[in-house]
Amino acid sequence: MEPVIDARALTHEYPDGTTALRDVTLSIGRGERIAVVGANGSGKSTLQLALGGLVEPSAGTVRYFDQTTDADRVRDRLGVLLQDPDDYLFNTTVREDIEYGPAQLGMSRRAADERIARLAAHLGLRDLLDRPPFRLSGGEKQRAAVASVLAFDPDVLLLDEPFGAVDAHYRERVRELVTDHEGTVVVFTPSLDLAAELAERVVVVGESGSIAADGPAREILTDSDLLRANGLRPPAAVQLFEGILDGDEIPLTVAAARRHLVDELG
Ligand SMILES: Nc1ncnc2c1ncn2[C@@H]1O[C@H](COP(=O)(O)OP(=O)(O)OP(=O)(O)O)[C@@H](O)[C@H]1O
Q1: What is the pTM of this model?
Q2: Residue 247 Cα, ligand 1 centroid: separation in angstroms?
Q3: ipTM of this model?
């Protein structure tokens, strides 16, 4: 598979001496759906920043689309959603924030308007477009930040905690957008339930930012010992069925668990 991002031997040390990444080698193929999971402070956000070209790692290289190691040359193809939505929302209105990406990339006015209208409707932002971003609630801000990253339809999405403050209704809406995205998706999250819903491959970041495991979602998400050793718990559905069903039959998501129960009981 052609890598869209190829990271080799990344190590990162913050100026105060904290090692946040340790010898991370990770190749992300076109169209892959990956969840990067790890306990708080393991190094997920730092890895996202390094892959997104927003932090220069202390050592190692990141190569994009087999073309360049300069992320700024492929900025229009990378959609990086940072953990804190305030990092995106800096214009006078929500509309201007969402328009910013498409405008920078020279998308036609008409195409941009259509795309923004669709995203705003889907994410419940229509009545908020003319408000200043600092007058939004936490969940509204996060939805606006998601819209601003998706507005320019990047090839690769690197999403740090895309659902943090979002309620159940809009969580489903954001999930649909991420699932329907045609390119590559990498989600950085401490939630194994989210990983189970979105990913076919799971990367576990262990202590001090080293990669503890990288493999098919089913293999990783049903390996309780591995997950617990790295400060994580299996998804809820796996916790419910582990020891009851065989590893290859354990449902990974609550929806799959429900289907299983309905089949068994019905
Ligand atoms: N600017 C910084 N300066 C110094 N240390 C930092 C800085 N940012 C993060 N760290 C440290 O680097 C390590 C990795 O942090 P990072 O934010 O990448 O973890 P994370 O896995 O994303 O955590 P969380 O799940 O809490 O978001 C932690 O020990 C953290 O305290």
Answers
A1: 0.94
A2: 33
A3: 0.97
